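[step 3/7] inverse_fold.run input=structure_tokens len=85
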């Protein structure tokens, strides 16, 4: 599990500047009514996450073969039928 600072929504609002400073070092979880609703991360961390996601997408395309391909209409029919639910 990732360790992070946790603030209530009210704390995040009243300590916004401190929250932004903390987010530069580690993710900050925002909790509202006892339920986690958001995580604030630095721009640098967000960009790193997006780069990792793109690397994953590229890796999946690199490993694709003809058996993995389907016709677009067929895929959407299967999707509409609930096959991927």
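[step 3/7] decode complete -> sequence:
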């Amino acid at each position: 599990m990732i360790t992070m600072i946790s603030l209530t929504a009210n704390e995040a609002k009243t300590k916004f500047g401190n929250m932004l400073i903390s987010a530069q070092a580690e993710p900050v979880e925002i909790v509202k009514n006892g339920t986690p609703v958001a995580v604030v991360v630095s721009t640098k961390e967000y960009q790193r996450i997006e780069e990792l996601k793109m690397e994953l997408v590229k890796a999946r395309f690199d490993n694709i073969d003809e058996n993995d391909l389907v016709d677009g209409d067929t895929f959407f029919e299967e999707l509409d039928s609930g096959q991927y639910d």
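[step 4/7] annotate
The helical segments are 9-14, 16-23, 43-62, 72-80.
The first strand starts at residue 5 and ends at 8.
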